[in-house]
């Protein structure tokens, strides 16, 4: 046991020395500034490892942006709060959508398109209509599913009442385990909607604040802000049906493949990732509209990584590009 510990210490020391020898000296001050801005403090050996990861990520960002400046990409990247994480670490920490099985998907009524005679508007942005609360921050908790769920509930509540109330993600994190969710360990939006229906309500954000931890359920009906009676799926993989739902219903909860470094450091532009799949969804977000920019159709997607990520917390994702990143593979909304 002691021998293994000694060997481990020697290996860490060797790696720290190796990392230190390959650092770019011009990046010493930027690394210190980045750590200070994001409140990062490490012991010496981990600092060396994290700096190596950060430098590698920074160079990947710079290389991508060179291609962007040459017209090879439709979006650019930027260093952000995830700069000292590998893509694998980022995925494990921030992506909490649990892939449902087929039986789960077919157990609930599936909704197809609206009448084909209905003409869709060329663009939709529910933020302009008051349906969308400010961008939130899930922190170091795999609760994206809860933020996606509250976003859809907030929009439908506004549609019904004319009042925009920020709802409690923590209520869902703590209290929907009986419906099959796992708190910070991940979950499904439909299970969140089922909890709200079963519980006959969900608290407001003010009444049940977010902690980014798994805590005992503390629902208080005195802070109940809304309810839902059911939930509906949009036809799987059908972007036309999804556009119909967004245009006629409001913000829609979706799940996407967000396992790529390009998503981790997305900054602005229309996101298209050729390595995305349309069947391995890892992260839950909220579609709040769609539009067209520079000849490219896009979805307006609200994330839950704070306004420090992406385009002030949003990402424009490719629309009508063969369901890129599974944008239409798992779309669901609550009925209020």
Automatic annotation (TrEMBL):
Cleaved signal peptide residues: 1-20
Listed CDD domains: Peptidase_C1A
Coiled coil stretches, renumbered: none
Keyword Signal applies: yes
Gene3D superfamilies xrefs: Cysteine proteinases
Cathepsin propeptide inhibitor domain mapped to chain residues: 31-90
Swiss-Prot/TrEMBL GO biological process terms: proteolysis
Entry keyword set: Disulfide bond, Hydrolase, Protease, Signal, Thiol protease, Zymogen
A single MF term (Gene Ontology): cysteine-type peptidase activity
Top-rank taxon: Eukaryota
Annotated Pfam families: Inhibitor_I29, Peptidase_C1
SMART domains from the UniProt entry: Inhibitor_I29, Pept_C1
Peptidase C1A papain C-terminal domain location: 120-335
Record-linked InterPro entries: Papain-like_cys_pep_sf (IPR038765), Pept_cys_AS (IPR000169), Pept_his_AS (IPR025660), Peptidase_C1A (IPR013128), Peptidase_C1A_C (IPR000668), Peptidase_C1A_papain-like (IPR039417), Prot_inhib_I29 (IPR013201)
Family statement: Belongs to the peptidase C1 family.
Protein name: Cathepsin L1
């Amino acid at each position: 046991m002691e021998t293994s510990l000694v060997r481990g210490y020697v290996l860490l020391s060797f790696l720290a020395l190796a990392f230190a020898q390959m650092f770019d000296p011009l990046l010493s001050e930027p690394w210190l500034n980045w750590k200070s801005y994001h409140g990062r403090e490490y012991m010496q050996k981990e600092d060396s490892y994290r700096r190596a990861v950060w430098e590698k990520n920074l160079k990947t960002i710079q290389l991508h942006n060179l291609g962007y400046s040459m017209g090879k990409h439709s979006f650019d990247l930027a260093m952000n709060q995830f700069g000292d994480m590998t893509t694998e670490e980022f995925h494990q920490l921030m992506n909490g959508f649990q892939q449902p099985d087929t039986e789960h998907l077919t157990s609930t009524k599936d909704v197809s398109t609206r009448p084909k005679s209905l003409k869709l508007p060329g663009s939709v942005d529910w933020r302009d209509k008051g349906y969308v609360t400010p961008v939130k921050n899930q922190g170091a908790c795999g609760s994206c599913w809860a933020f996606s769920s509250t976003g859809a509930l907030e929009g439908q509540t506004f549609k019904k009442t004319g009042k925009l109330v920020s709802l409690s993600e923590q209520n869902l994190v703590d209290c929907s385990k009986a419906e099959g969710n796992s708190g910070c360990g991940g979950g499904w939006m439909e299970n969140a909607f089922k909890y709200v229906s079963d519980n006959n309500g969900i608290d407001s954000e003010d009444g049940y604040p977010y902690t980014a931890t798994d805590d005992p359920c503390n629902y208080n009906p005195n802070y109940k802000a809304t309810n839902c009676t059911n939930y509906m799926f949009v036809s799987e993989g059908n972007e036309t049906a999804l556009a119909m739902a967004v245009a006629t219903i409001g913000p829609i909860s979706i799940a996407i493949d967000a396992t790529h470094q390009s998503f981790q450091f997305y900054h602005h532009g229309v996101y298209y990732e050729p390595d995305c799949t349309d069947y391995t969804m890892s992260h839950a977000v909220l579609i709040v509209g769609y539009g067209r920019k520079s000849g490219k159709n896009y979805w307006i997607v609200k994330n839950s990584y704070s306004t420090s990520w992406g385009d002030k917390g949003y990402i424009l994702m490719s629309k009508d590009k063969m369901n890129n990143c599974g944008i239409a593979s798992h779309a669901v909304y609550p009925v209020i």
